Amino acid sequence: MQTDSTPRCRGGSAPDGSAPRPPDALTPAAEPLLIPASVAGPLCGRSEASWWRDHAAGRCPRPVRIGGSTLWRVEELRRWIEARCPDRRSWEAMEAARNGNGRH
C-alpha cells in the first residue's frame, strides 16, 4: 500500500510529465562479450561437437577459463573469421603482431 504522496510511474507519464524511462532491466540485452562453445561453434559455422574438436586440435582461438567455464571472446572470434580462420599458432602470432608483440 502506498503511504507517501509521491506519484508512481505505471505505464503513463513520469511524475514530471516527461515520457517514462524503462528500468535498465527492461532495456534490450547487450551482446555478450564471452560465449560458450554451444554458441561459439554455430557462430563460426560449426556444431558444438566440431568446435570442441577444433579446440582440441588447435584450430580455433584459445578460450578464456573462468571458474569451471570455458568461454571465447566474441570480438576475437570476429577478427579470427575476418583473418580466414587460421590455426591457433598462426592466429596468436597475428594477434601478437597486431598488439605490438605482447599477449592480448
How large, in whole angstroms, is the Cα Rg?
22 Å
Summarize the biggest pleated sheet: 3 strands, antiparallel
Sheet/helix structural class? alpha+beta
Cα distance spanning the termini: 54 Å
Query: Helicity level, as a percent range?
Result: 25-40%
Task: Put the structure in a nutshell.
The protein is an alpha+beta fold. The chain has four helices and three strands.
Describe the structure in your own words.
By secondary structure, this protein is α+β, with helices and mostly antiparallel strands. The chain has a domain at 31-98. It contains four helices and three strands; from the N terminus they run E-H-H-E-E-H-H. It has helices spanning 37-43, 48-56, 74-82, 88-98, and strands at 34-35, 64-66, 69-73. Strands 1-3-2 form a three-stranded antiparallel β-sheet. A hairpin with a 2-residue loop joins strand 2 (64-66) and strand 3 (69-73). The longest helix has 11 residues, at 88-98. The protein is globular. Mean pLDDT is 82; it is low at 6-13.
Features:
104 residues, alpha+beta, three-stranded antiparallel β-sheet, 3 strands, 35% helix
Q: SSE layout and pairings?
A:
Elements: E1 34-35, H1 37-43, H2 48-56, E2 64-66, E3 69-73, H3 74-82, H4 88-98
Antiparallel strand pairs: 1-3, 2-3
